[in-house]
Amino acid sequence: MPFDKIQLQQGPEAVLVGLARAGNRAAFAELVRRRQPWIRNLMRRFCGNLALADDLSQEVFLTAWRAVPQLERPSRFAAWLKRIAISVWLQHVRRRDPLRDPTALPADTAASAAPTGLGMDLDRALSVLAEDARLCIVLAYHESMTHEEIVELTGMPLGTVKSHIRRGSEQLRQILDAYTHDGAREESA
Amino acid sequence: MSTDRDDRLAAFFDAAREDLGSEDFTRRVMRRVDIARRRAVIWGVMAGIALLICAAFLTGPVLTAVNVLLSVLPNSWIETGGGAVSQMFAPARSIGALVAVIVLLVLALIRKVLR
Q1: Do A41 and B33 count as a contact with CB atoms less than 8 A apart?
Q2: What is this structure's pTM?
Q3: Using an 8 Å Cβ cutoff, are A43 and A86 in contact?
Q4: I need a surface site. Which of A58, A80, A83, B104 has the fewest CB within 10 A?
Q5: A147 touches chain B (CB under 8 A)
């Protein structure tokens, strides 16, 4: 039975996932519409560049479309999608080439994709951290995940995750404090 | 369950979250999904055609090989003369039995080497 757009927009996520598993394109499009702000924000925190984040987010949804028939529990869609997002990010880090690096983007693309305000400060601060530390910090703060959940998702040892978060938090605090002071000084000047 | 979360940093992350919802993004994703679907169909058709071609080319040689095997394997490789005992052990004396023993030995050797 075909579903109209309004039915899909009002339908619970588990039902949409069930339909997408059966190959329903419209149901999957609705899932993309609902979940894209979350995935794009997450990817942006990982890579610090909106254009690249969008590129990787598209990759996440494309992978999800290919793999959704194998998803056994539709109620776990969000956790499953997050796992795909992290895997896409880790693959990108491993095969990173200078052409896809945010710093190598053409000036006009970088400018049009440049975030503003708090997001920009945060992305700059995060870019100082090592890849693994940034991954742990983003999952801990952006996704509010516990150490154990991060261990399960990334496969890193618990001690490593804890130390990445402790040191990374300290580094971020210092960098963000410096931004806050600089901003206040510029405003007063 | 442990977190060690710094509340100030958590608030900063929350504040930096942006509303990035856009129909354009969904359209772009679905365009790529459509391309992937079309590509899968094209690959499926091409794989089917390739299989048919392979089957057409291989059917003759495979049938010939099967016929040769069927005619060779039951033959005895040790002649023991006639009699009931000889007939009783005929399967063990066949080339098929010899081939089976050789295959089992090779498999055992491979397993030993790989262990």
Answers
A1: no
A2: 0.69
A3: no
A4: B104
A5: yes
